[in-house]
Amino acid sequence: MTDLDPTGLYEELGAKPVVNAVGSLTLLGGSTPPPEVKEAMDAAESAYVPMTELQERAGAFIAGLTGVPAAYVTSGAGSALTLATAALMAGDDDDKIQQLPNTAGMKDEILIQRRGRYWYDRCLELAGARLVEFGSPDGATADDLARAIGPKTAAVHCLVQEELPDPAALPLEEVIRVAGEAGVPVTVDAAGQIYPLENIGKYVRMGAAFQCVATKYIGAPQSTGLALGTEEMIRKLSLQTFSSYEGRRVRGVGRPQKVDRQEVLGAVAAVKRWMSLNHEDRLADDEQRSRAILDRVARLPGVGAALIDNVVGHNAFGVRIRADTSVTGVSLPEVVDGRAAHLDARPPRRGLDGRARLRPRPRSRDAGGRTPGPGAGRVAAGGRLPFASRSPYRSPTPAVSAGASMRCSRPVGIRRTSGAAMSIIAPNPK
């Protein structure tokens, strides 16, 4: 088979390749699956299989690896959120399943801390649910949650980012306790909580009915995610999916959110690999790459750099950059947007994103390689300030111990990258 030049393939279409200095980012195409995942996906092409059966078997296998009652491979973590919300409202009532997104006669309110609103909570509304805030911008209490629960409450939702805990938010343990006393299920967006390994399934084991995982962060295809949860929750979620739509001929809202057999087996292989990977070596490699970038960038006139040493979640290590524009002659947003006249505009461009987001930029971690190819670390550490936006950055915190209080995260407010600081990751050169 002839080797193809990926740069040529993209440029034939008029799309300019970039050097990914960000990580498994949706807008850059997600992940680069490691060999084990690619091999599993290639092997899947050799035969056809009923998707309902494959999903059941794959889910059971993943549930066993992650220590939860049940699991399901979805079309990304966002899809898992939408399917879970639909399941909470319609349950296993086929008439209600086909009625959505019309929620008349259903419990259709999802409670969420006002302080805990975030960019991706939109996925909760796609099946017809309505988000109802409780608490205030300054925080929330157990009493606030208890008062907010009413006859239309379908669930309480919480975003968890252990690397960015919010001390003013109502802890997840309290959310689960108060909601449980009222007979209301709790859902958790833990898309990036892929390390420590116990975080994959941890919130279900704590008592939540559901948590999602973005498997692109562990080397699965971008278009896959995991729904982890109780057996009842995952069974009802499966009734909303494309395979149920076709197999049972019941029209759930999940029909457009399709995965193929190659993607399902790729997700299984990625979970299997991630749960057995030597993460000490992975993190040591990440730190070494970060320090290599740090050493180069810190030498630039007018530029200050510091190591980001967080190891929790999907944001392992990186470099924080500060620039004195009176010395550099260019602001960091200008670097990100490529507006500086003296920047090298020749392809391949660097993978930069200047738009502010509610959550920090994902960064590359695993030694299997999901971002740049050979030599990309050297390119990303070059002298023309190739940064990726993470504005504003909050200092990393230690991993939360098993007995510590879990707090929902307060996502960063929507603001544009400042002219003073941003951060880059340590691209994986393998």
What does this structure look like?
- This protein is 32% helix and 13% strand.
- The chain is α/β, with parallel strands linked by helices and 430 residues long.
- The protein folds into 2 domains: 35-276, Type I PLP-dependent aspartate aminotransferase-like (Major domain) (Aspartate Aminotransferase, domain 2), CATH 3.40.640.10; 278-424, no CATH class.
- The strands form 3 sheets. A 7-stranded mixed β-sheet has the order 2-8-7-6-5-3-4, sandwiched between helices. A 3-stranded antiparallel β-sheet has the order 9-10-12.
- Helix 3 (51-66) runs parallel beside helix 11 (261-276) and helix 4 packs across helix 9 (231-238).
- The radius of gyration is 22 Å and the shape is globular.
- The two termini are 23 Å apart.
- The ordered H/E elements are HEHHEHHEEHEHEHEEHHHHEEHHEHE
Strand order of the largest sheet: 2-8-7-6-5-3-4
What share of residues is helical?
Answer: 25-40%
Main CATH class of the largest domain: Alpha Beta
| Gross morphology | globular
Biggest sheet layout: 7 strands, mixed
